[in-house]
Amino acid sequence: MKKIVLLLVLGVSISAFSQKKDKTLVTIDGEKTTVSEFKRVYEKNLDAIDNKEAKSVSKNLDLYINYKLKVKEAYSIHLDTLPSYKREMETYKNQLSAPYLQDTTFIDQLVKDAYFRTKNQVKAKHILLRLPREASPKDTLMLYNKILELRERILKGEKFEAIAAQYSEDKSAQDDPKTGRKGNGGNLGYFAAFNMVYPFEVAAYNTKVGEISMPFRTQFGYHIMQVDDLKESKGEIEAAHILIRDTTAVGKLKIDSIYTKLKNKEKFEDLAMQYSEDPGSKKNGGKLGKFGTGRMVKPFDDAVFALENINDFSKPFKTRFGWHIAKLLKKHPIQSFDEMKKELKEKVKKSSRMQLSEKAVVNKLKKEYTITEFEEAKKILNKKNLTALPIDSLQSTILRINDKNITQEAFIKYIRNRRHLAVFKLFEMFEEEEILTYYKENLIYTEPEYAYTLKEYEDGLLLFELMQEKIWTKSSSDTIGLQKFFDTHTTNYKTTDLKSIKGQVINDYQNFLEENWIADLRKKSKIKVSKKELKKLINFYKNK
Q: What predicted TM-score, i.e. pTM, was given to this entire model?
């Protein structure tokens, strides 16, 4: 019987979206099902039906009526109030509504941008002034003005690298007197799409070569950036390396001796397995897999991407990890947009830039909705220890979206586990989340397909709970009833040993219980089928 349940789950529909002129096919206790609703159910199930008899319109209408009666029974005994049911529905709603919270036009543009930034790599240097996540507007403005002053000094002739070494809070830009390591002056080398946090990537590709950007903000703080070059990417490569960690003269002698062996035609893979001190790659001959520019430290990138031919190997070179020799194994040039579109779309969807798509939806909704902030109620934002305020003092409306009032209490609940951010920022986030919540709550009125699908799942889940309670659990636990059924129907089986065919008997017993149950449900309900509309339907599908 579970198969029938699952088949019918695919077909339940909602009268709210029926056409006004649509004729009524069946009425169950006053609830009408239109012809188009049943057609939607029937046609959706046709592909799953493999014989002519099962495709009978009349038989499918009977099954549909049985289905509606079961769902009605599930609601009448309040299965929709079960905590497990509510949790399952909330999870499904979030999954089902997710595509509606994305701006497809915006995503398409993100994919096109990602392709350009994959095909072309940018070389840049930056200065970072870190900003705490909970910084106040006053502190934020002070830091912005400070980095703006640094920009002005560079524009007036001071060297970017010198300012970076002195002021940047990216440690790689600074000299390290303890180790003697020379800072990079903010130089990041070449990078491409998905190598940096998204706001940094945007700034890099929007700044012209030779120019210095205006200050921009990322999760780390404020930056300014100078773009040094933009060129076509070499794509990705596969490479191997041999690493000697000792950076002293002893390590140099060792790497030089390995280099001599390579020039004398000894195998790179064998030497890597014998001498390399990179435990992650030495076992497989030094292989590092596939990577693009920006994935490795700059000296390594420079050395390996300078190799022209497959199987070429570099001279020994030094990084902060030690001495290396690198070998080029394979090249992966950038493919066409059509070839990369699917892969890039997946990358975009998994990246932080997808938040911008959701932001685009919020911005559209802000223009469509009437949104009111209540300044008097917002004064609680200035109070200390907000979460300690008594609930009965938080019942004023702080935000209204169309006709929905949202209280101060809802805001306090929202910020309870987000206290690391400034309260004004939390209110912005709260408002955007409430806008999206309102949008999701109203999807059943604005998106018919969403409403149909949600109702299908909702009723199907209820029906599963109902069948579990009324039929499946009872048939397997009611040993006396099962034995009685078997004794009464012994002539239907080839044996008198219940244990040997228990599975088959349980299935038959389930059918028996369900048939009796359905008969009782039909007796309790008033069912009226329009013979005229049913005949029209039968003729319609007969001639199709």
A: 0.59
